[in-house]
Design goal:
By secondary structure, this protein is mainly β. It folds into 2 domains: 88 residues, Immunoglobulin-like, CATH 2.60.40.1610; 132 residues, Jelly Rolls. It is 9% helix and 34% strand. About 12% of the residues have low confidence.
Amino acid sequence: MVSPNNDTIYGVGFADLTRDAVVVQTPTDVPAGHYWTVQITDVLTNVVHQLGSAAGTPGGNFLLVGATWEGNEPAEFVGVLRMPTYTAAVIPRSVAAHSEESKQSDSDTEMAARARTLVALHRSDESYRALLHGREQYTMTFAENALPPVDRSRGGFWSLTVYDEDAFVLAGAPGGRLNLGTVDLDAGNLVFRDGTLTLHLSHEEPSDLAARSNWIPAPDGEFCLIIRAYVPDRTILDDSYRFPDVIREQ
């Protein structure tokens, strides 16, 4: 995968279930509204179990077992997770605050497992496949009451990320800023004007102070965008919510 997200910190582990079960311990003290997930896949990378805020599962200990395991569920365990294969991948993720440390770890991540709650920008028709260019200035404007609808109670959030022309993560972005979204809104780092949130995309830094606050640096060549919605509302899934167009400024 060449376009890992810059929103979450990844982990990965592998379990051999041929001889015995494995304990999967999930956190019990996660703050309300914090996105976290533990995705468990079989040897063919099919997602078999999804734990975490989006799935609404409680924190605690789970027992991960192979297809023919016949033991007893230990006391005080949340449940038994049975796998169809004897090799399992356990992939935890947690939303990352936008600090220099988390940006570095996210950018260096080689794995980009996609949760079932991931939605890409618009459809895949030709009108949305054209690459953008850093020499231009683009904007994307959301009404304050029409931001991407996500379920915040289950940790839902959204982000808009800039990638290079091959959909690789950018290297050397000013200030390490690769995307903007819910995390920046919650931190009070984005500026609304007249009831709208306008995100600015260009290689050259905007001169206007508010525009700089809402600026995602682009490379000096071609680039592309991906917008992600974690734990999206059904209006995103059924396409009744429309993401705003990317407008080239004149």
